[in-house]
């Protein structure tokens, strides 16, 4: 383009800073628990709650696969919701309290038999994931209707993920110190009180998102038909490419994120001792990496003005995969080399999440343009389904790999167990990342096509307006 996307965005489509930030805070609320689950839940269940790694792996796989099925259903429900607050915003208001309560309940840690603990984990985790779907699918879909401008949605997506990764920074920086300070020597009590704080904050932040955002894209009124919506989605080839890529992407994230705390505790040798103020090695490692991730997110808008989203996604994934693979060759006493490489990889990965979500919003436009049916909630819920499938398989594999290599919680690990942990933070996610890249090669929406789609859709909506 000869002029920037910003200058060609109609004034009516531009959003105020307060609305962009308000929208972003919704993902802060989501990530207080989402990131806690990604980084600490496998560790909590094995080393704190006392469950066997293989049993936890099976639970992750079963509950998340069942939960993933709920995503398309929630998308269909949200698309058919009509209230004075819109289609998607009401869910932020009404589901916030159940979300906070169930997130806290997962870490209560009741004193039960081994079988009773496993049943409790199944029930609370399954219910939490269902409520997460009920609030997060409408929240994600809201980005597709907050503005008709693709560029504005990229900007909103950047705000979203700065806020999301800010929550991730709080999680990885303060969970281990708060666990120690609040727990008074009890890891279980420390996790419980920390998650209580996250629960209260999550509820308040979702309510702020509800109050500060608006839905502006009004689809052409059409007869509700679930079969036709699903058929239209299957004709959306760019979305299918993102779906497959998302499964592999989240699979590698689940494996690597879940393994890092084991890597730092058992391979590097972090025993929880304070090395700087209240922070241990794990908090320092993950905190610095998350700061780098946030800095990477802030580069998203500038990069998308210069490069195609597809090209960026492929290039960033390839470099990040190479950096992850290098961890296999690092000796345990090279902590600061690990930190440097991890920060570099996180900085490069920063733009990926907002890019993918903005690409999904473009897919919603493409689907309406191609088939005449707009199903924003279904598009985003389908992507949520892919993410949860990836997380389910990745988390399940994490538990199985720990068991396969002979991991025993809170014991000195064998060479085999240490090798397994090394593989889980390096070569395994690298290989899976390459599969994600292969899928994204089939995403074929470029800037020229998106501009034509936006113009055509705007004309259709004007023509569909009733004559005055």
Short description, anyone?
This protein is an all-alpha fold and 468 residues long. It contains 19 helices and no strands. The chain has helices at residues 5-8, 17-48, 53-79, 89-94, 96-105, 114-145, 150-183, 187-212, 226-234, 237-268, 281-297, 300-306, 309-326, 335-349, 352-371, 376-404, 415-425, 427-440, 447-464.
Architecture overview:
This protein has 468 residues and is mainly α. Helix content is 77%, strand content 0%. The chain has a single domain (15-216, 225-464), classed as MFS general substrate transporter like domains (Growth Hormone, Chain: A, Up-down Bundle), CATH 1.20.1250. It is globular, with a radius of gyration of 22 Å.
| DSSP strand count | 0
CATH superfamily: MFS general substrate transporter like domains
Distance between the termini: 36 Å
Count of individual domains: 1
Structural class: mainly alpha
Mean pLDDT: 89
CATH topology description: Growth Hormone, Chain: A
Query: So, CATH architecture?
Result: Up-down Bundle
Spans with pLDDT under 50 lasting ≥5 residues?
Answer: 1-9
SS summary, helix count = 19
Q: Report strand %.
A: under 5%
CATH class value? Mainly Alpha
Helix content: over 70%
Query: Element order, helices and strands?
Result: HHHHHHHHHHHHHHHHHHH
Largest beta-sheet characterization: none
What is the CA-based Rg, rounded? 22 Å
Tertiary shape: globular
């Amino acid at each position: 383009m000869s002029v920037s996307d910003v200058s060609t965005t109609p004034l009516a489509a531009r959003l105020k800073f307060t609305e962009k930030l308000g929208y972003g805070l919704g993902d802060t609320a989501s990530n207080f628990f989402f990131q806690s689950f990604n980084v600490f839940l496998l560790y909590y269940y094995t080393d704190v709650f006392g469950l066997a790694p293989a049993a936890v792996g099976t639970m992750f796989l079963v509950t998340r696969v069942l939960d993933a099925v709920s995503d398309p259903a929630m998308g269909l429900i949200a698309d058919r919701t009509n209230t004075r607050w819109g289609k998607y915003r009401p869910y932020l208001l009404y589901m916030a309290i159940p979300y906070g309560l169930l997130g806290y309940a997962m870490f209560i840690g009741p004193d039960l038999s081994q079988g009773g603990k496993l049943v409790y984990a199944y029930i609370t985790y399954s219910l939490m994931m269902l409520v997460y779907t009920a609030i997060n699918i409408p929240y994600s879909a809201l980005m597709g209707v907050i503005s008709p401008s693709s560029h504005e949605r990229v900007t909103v997506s950047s705000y979203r993920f700065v806020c999301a990764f800010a929550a991730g920074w709080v999680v990885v920086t303060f969970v281990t110190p708060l666990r120690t300070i609040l727990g008074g020597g009890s890891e279980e009590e420390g996790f419980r009180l920390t998650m209580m704080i996250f629960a209260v904050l999550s509820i308040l932040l979702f309510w702020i998102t509800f109050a500060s955002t608006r839905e502006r894209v009004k689809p052409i009124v059409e007869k509700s038909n679930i079969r036709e919506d699903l058929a239209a989605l299957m004709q959306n080839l760019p979305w299918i490419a993102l779906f497959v890529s998302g499964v592999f992407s989240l699979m590698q994230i689940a494996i690597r994120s879940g393994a890092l705390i084991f890597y730092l505790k058992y391979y590097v040798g972090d025993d929880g001792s304070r090395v700087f103020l209240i922070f241990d090695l794990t908090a320092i490692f993950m905190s610095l990496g998350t700061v780098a991730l946030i800095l990477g997110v802030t580069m998203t808008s500038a990069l998308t003005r210069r490069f195609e989203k597809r090209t960026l996604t492929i290039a960033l994934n390839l470099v990040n995969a190479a950096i992850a693979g290098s961890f296999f060759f690092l000796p345990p006493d090279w902590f600061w080399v690990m930190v440097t490489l991890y920060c570099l990889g996180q900085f490069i990965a920063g733009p990926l999440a907002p890019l993918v979500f903005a690409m999904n919003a473009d897919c919603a436009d493409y689907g309406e343009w191609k088939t005449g049916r707009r199903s924003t909630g279904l598009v985003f819920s389908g992507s949520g389904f892919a993410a949860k499938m990836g997380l389910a398989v990745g988390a399940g594999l994490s538990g199985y790999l720990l068991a396969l290599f002979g991991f025993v919680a809170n014991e000195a690990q064998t060479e085999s167990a240490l090798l397994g942990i090394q593989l889980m933070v390096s070569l395994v996610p690298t290989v899976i990342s390459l599969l994600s890249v292969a899928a994204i090669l089939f995403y074929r929406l470029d800037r020229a096509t998106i501009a034509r789609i936006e113009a055509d859709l705007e004309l259709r909506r004007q023509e569909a307006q009733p004559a005055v």
